[in-house]
Specification:
InterPro entries (chain B): AAA+_ATPase, ABC_transp_ATP-bind, ABC_transporter-like_ATP-bd, ABC_transporter-like_CS, Oligopep_ABC_C, P-loop_NTPase
Low-confidence stretches of chain A: 1-8, 273-282
CATH topology of the largest domain in chain B: Rossmann fold
Distance between the termini of chain A: 46 Å
Pfam families (chain B): ABC_tran (PF00005), oligo_HPY (PF08352)
Strand order of the largest sheet of chain A: 6-7-8-3-9-10-12-11
GO biological process, one term (chain B): peptide transport
Mean pLDDT of chain A: 88
Radius of gyration of chain A: 21 Å
Number of strands of chain B: 12
Radius of gyration of chain B: 21 Å
Structural class of chain A: alpha/beta
Largest interface: A-B, 54 and 53 residues
CATH superfamily of one domain in chain A: P-loop containing nucleotide triphosphate hydrolases
Largest sheet of chain A: 8 strands, mixed
CATH class of one domain in chain A: Alpha Beta
Strand order of the largest sheet of chain B: 6-7-8-3-9-10-12-11
Oligomer: heterodimer
Number of helices of chain B: 11
Low-confidence stretches of chain B: 331-350
Family (chain B): Belongs to the ABC transporter superfamily.
Strand content of chain A: 15-25%
Largest sheet of chain B: 8 strands, mixed
Structural class of chain B: alpha/beta
Number of strands of chain A: 12
Shape of chain B: globular
CATH architecture of the largest domain in chain B: 3-Layer(aba) Sandwich
Keywords (chain B): ATP-binding, Nucleotide-binding, Transport
C-alpha cells in the first residue's frame, strides 16, 4: 500500500494552532493545555517532551479528540489535519479519520488492548471497518502486519490473546494495529516507557524503519530526552500546559533558548563521561533544577517557571512570555532567553 | 576504612516455588537469584543494573534478609545474617536500611512526618526522651532540605520528590552503615531526579554511608556508582569499577545494554548493537549461558556450559567464555567470590 496523504509540497500534515483544553477539578476548571501550537510535516517526526502534568499527553489526546469529556473540554484552537479542522468534524467524520489516516499508540499496551479478542481480530477490525476488507482479507493483513513488526511465527500469534504476549510483544501488536490502514500520522504517547532498555531500542528501531518505508509522520510524546535526540527532527518542550520552546532537534540540544530546556539538559548525567575512579562524592554535582513542577491549580503569575528559574527578571512575574522566534528556526517563550554559546 | 568488606555475599540463591494443580504442590522454582557472589566495600556505591525480572530487586532485599535466601551466605560486618532469627537480627537492622522506589506506597498515609521519622527510634528504643527525639527528627528534616513545618503534615501533602526525601530520612534516621536503594528515583520527574541523586551523594559523603544502588537507568548508575554489577536472569554477568565497565564492557549483554541507552546528543553518530528477542522466562531458563539465545557471539559451548565469572584484573570480571583467555587465575566456581579477592589487591597477572 502507498501512503494516502498527498498534500501540497511542504504544507504541514498536522497543524495545531492555539489548542486550549480545560480540565475540570473539584475547585473548578484549570487550563491543562494553554494555546499550544506546532506542526508536523509529512514524513517528519516531532517530539513533545515535558514532565508529568505538563499537558503533553492531553495535547496528543486532544488532537484526535480522544480525551474523555468530561473532565476535559477543548475550549479553543484548531487542529488542521490534511487541511481539515478535526475539532469541527462530526463524530462520524472523525471516525473515518481516526485509525485510518491518523492512529495512536499508547504507553501501556495491556490496558489499550481488549483482553477478550485475539490480536488478529483487533488488528483486522480497522482494516474491515475502514478498507472494507473481508474477514479472511483482514486476517491476512493482520498476519502481514505482525510479520512487519517482527513478531515471530505471525501465522500462529495472530490467534493469541494479549495476555499470552510479553510487554514488548504487546507494544508491537499495538503498532501493528495502528499501522494496519497505513495512516499518514502516528501519534505515539510514551510508547517505550514501560519497556526495558534493550526492548525499547528494538521498538524505536522498528518505528524508525516503518516510518521511513511508509513516509509516515510521527508525533512522539516522551519524557526521555535521549529518545527525542535519537528519533525526532523537531521538538516541542512543554511546561505547565504551555509550549516553552520549539526547535529543530540539533538546535534544541546544542543551544537551548529556554532556561527550563537548558536546566533539563544539565540535570541528566551523560553516558560514558565518568571521570576518574573515585567515589561519587568526588564527582561534579548534578545541576538540578530547584523547586518542583507547579500545580496547575496554583500557577504563579506571569511565567510558570519563574520561581525555579535562575534567569528570572522582574517582568517575568507580571507578563506571561509569548512563544516568539529567537534565532534560526528556534522559538522560546522567555523574556530572558539563554544566550547562544 | 578497614580492609574487610562491609558485606560479603557468597553463592546466594533465592528460589521461589511455583505452585500449581489442585493441591498447590510445588511444580518447580523461579530462580530469581541463582548463585550470586559479591563484596560491598565500606563507603562505596555498588550499582546493580539489569532489566526487569533479572533479580536485582530480589537480591537487594535478600541482602537485608527482607526475603529469605534459599542458600548461600551473607556476612554483614563479619556477622552471618542467614540462619538468624528475626529477633537476633534486630540489633543489626538499625545498621542496614532500604529506600523504596515508590514514595507514594512506602509511607503510611495516616502518620505525620514526625511520627514516620520518630518510629525507627521508637522501635529500637533510642532517643526516648521527648525533647531528644524531637531534636533528632528536626535534624533529619533539616538534612533533607525540608521545612520544619513538614513535621506536622501527612505524606499526601507532599510532592513525589519531597516524599522520597522523607523516605530517605527514615532510612538514615538511625545512622545505618548500609543503605540499599531500590530504584529510588525512577518514579520521579527528570528535573527532580537530579535533586535526589545529589542528596544521596551528599549524605554518603557526610555520613560515610555504603550504598547498594539498584536502578535500570544506566546513566544515573554510572554517575553514582564506584563499581557496577550487571545481572541477567538471576546471575551477575559482569562486575567492574564503574568507569571501566562503561568504557570497556566485556560481556556481550553489557555491551548491548549500554548500546541501547538513548543518548541526549543528536549530533552523535552511533552504531547500535541491537540484540534480538527478549529476556527468557526464569521459569524456563535456557541451558548453558542464559544470554546465548540473544547473543551475537554465541558458540556451541555457550549452549552447554554456564560460564563462570572470570576475574580479568583490576577488579573487572565477566561471565563470558570470550573473556576466558584474559582470566587472571583459574576460577574454581562462579560463586567463590574470587573476583573480590582480585579487587582488594593490585592485579597480579598470571
Amino acid at each position: 500500500m502507498t501512503a494516502v496523504a498527498q498534500p501540497a509540497a511542504e504544507a504541514p500534515l498536522l497543524d495545531v494552532r492555539g489548542l486550549t483544553a480545560e480540565l475540570s477539578l473539584e475547585e473548578g476548571p484549570v487550563r491543562a493545555v494553554d494555546g499550544v501550537s506546532f506542526s508536523v510535516p509529512p514524513g517528519g517526526t516531532l517530539g513533545v517532551v515535558g514532565e508529568s502534568g505538563c499537558g503533553k499527553s492531553l495535547t496528543a489526546l486532544s488532537v484526535l479528540r480522544l480525551a474523555p469529556q468530561p473532565p476535559v473540554r477543548v475550549v479553543g484552537g484548531e487542529v488542521l489535519f490534511q487541511g481539515r479542522d478535526l475539532l469541527r468534524l462530526s463524530e462520524a467524520e472523525l471516525r473515518r479519520v481516526r485509525g485510518r489516516h491518523a492512529a495512536m499508540v499508547f504507553q501501556e499496551p495491556m490496558t489499550s488492548l481488549n483482553p477478550v479478542f485475539t490480536v488478529g481480530e483487533q488488528i483486522g477490525e480497522g482494516v474491515r471497518l475502514h478498507l472494507g476488507a473481508s474477514r479472511s482479507q483482514a486476517r491476512e493483513r493482520a498476519v502481514e502486519m505482525l510479520r512487519q513488526v517482527g513478531i515471530p511465527a505471525p501465522g500462529e500469534r495472530v490467534d493469541a490473546y494479549p495476555h499470552q504476549l510479553s510487554g514488548g510483544m504487546r507494544q508491537r501488536v499495538m503498532i501493528a494495529m495502528a499501522l494496519a490502514c497505513d495512516p499518514a500520522l502516528l501519534i505515539a504517547d510514551e510508547p517505550t516507557t514501560a519497556l526495558d532498555v534493550t526492548i525499547q531500542a528494538q521498538i524505536l528501531d522498528l518505528l524508525k524503519r516503518l516510518q521511513a518505508e511508509r513516509r509516515m509522520a510521527v508525533m512522539l510524546i516522551t519524557h526521555d530526552l535521549g529518545v527525542v535526540a535519537e528519533s525526532c527532527d523537531a521538538v516541542v518542550v512543554m511546561y505547565a500546559g504551555r509550549v516553552v520552546e520549539r526547535a529543530p532537534v540539533r538546535e534544541l540540544f546544542s543551544r537551548p533558548a529556554h532556561p527550563y530546556t537548558a536546566g533539563l539538559l544539565r540535570s541528566i548525567p551523560s553516558l560514558q563521561l565518568a571521570v576518574g575512579e573515585g567515589s561519587a562524592g568526588s564527582r561534579r554535582r548534578l545541576q538540578a533544577i530547584p523547586g518542583m513542577v507547579p500545580s496547575l491549580r496554583k500557577l504563579p503569575s506571569g511565567c510558570a517557571f519563574r520561581d525555579r528559574c535562575d534567569r528570572a527578571l522582574e517582568v517575568c512575574a507580571r507578563v506571561v512570555p509569548p512563544l516568539e522566534p529567537k534565532r534560526g528556526g528556534q522559538s522560546a517563550a522567555c523574556h530572558n532567553p539563554v544566550p547562544a554559546p | 576504612m578497614t580492609s574487610e568488606p562491609l558485606l560479603q555475599v557468597r553463592d546466594l540463591k533465592v528460589h521461589f516455588p511455583v505452585r500449581g494443580g489442585f493441591w498447590g504442590r510445588a511444580r518447580g522454582a523461579v530462580k530469581a537469584v541463582d548463585g550470586v557472589g559479591l563484596d560491598v566495600v565500606r563507603g562505596e556505591t555498588l550499582g546493580l543494573v539489569g532489566e526487569s525480572g533479572c533479580g536485582k530487586s530480589t537480591l537487594g532485599r535478600a541482602l537485608l534478609r527482607l526475603v529469605e535466601p534459599t542458600a548461600g551466605s551473607i556476612r554483614f560486618d563479619g556477622q552471618e545474617l542467614t540462619g538468624q532469627s528475626q529477633r537476633q537480627l534486630r540489633p543489626l537492622r538499625r545498621r542496614m536500611q532500604l529506600v523504596f522506589q515508590d514514595p507514594y506506597a512506602s509511607l503510611n498515609p495516616r502518620m505525620t512526618v514526625r511520627d514516620i521519622l520518630g518510629e525507627p527510634f521508637a522501635i529500637h528504643g533510642l532517643a526516648r526522651g521527648r525533647g531528644e527525639r524531637e531534636r533528632e527528627v528536626a535534624a533529619l528534616v533539616d538534612a533533607m532540605g525540608l521545612p520544619r513545618e513538614a513535621l506536622d503534615r501527612y505524606p499526601h501533602e507532599f510532592s513525589g520528590g519531597q516524599r522520597q526525601r522523607i523516605g530517605i530520612a527514615r532510612a538514615i534516621a538511625l545512622r545505618p552503615d548500609l543503605v540499599v536503594a531500590d530504584e529510588p528515583i525512577s518514579a520521579l520527574d527528570v528535573s527532580i531526579q537530579a535533586q535526589i541523586v545529589n542528596l544521596l551523594v551528599d549524605l554518603q559523603r557526610e555520613r560515610g554511608l555504603t550504598y547498594v544502588f539498584i536502578a535500570h537507568d544506566l546513566k544515573i548508575v554510572e554517575y553514582v556508582s564506584t563499581r557496577v554489577a550487571v545481572m541477567y536472569l538471576g546471575r551477575i554477568v559482569e562486575l567492574a569499577p564503574a568507569a571501566d565497565l562503561y568504557r570497556r564492557p566485556r560481556h556481550p549483554y553489557t555491551q548491548a545494554l549500554l548500546s541501547a541507552v538513548p543518548v541526549p546528543d543528536p549530533g552523535r553518530a552511533r552504531t547500535r548493537m541491537l540484540v534480538p528477542g527478549e529476556p527468557p522466562s526464569p521459569l524456563n531458563p535456557p541451558t548453558g549461558c542464559a544470554f546465548h539465545p540473544r547473543c551475537p557471539h554465541a558458540m556451541e559451548r555457550c549452549r552447554r556450559e554456564t560460564p563462570p565469572l572470570y576475574p580479568l584484573g583490576a577488579g573487572h570480571s565477566a561471565a563470558c567464555f570470550l573473556a576466558e583467555g584474559d582470566a587472571r587465575e583459574v576460577a574454581p566456581t562462579p560463586t567463590s567470590g574470587g573476583e573480590a579477592g582480585v579487587l582488594a589487591q593490585p592485579s597480579s597477572p598470571g
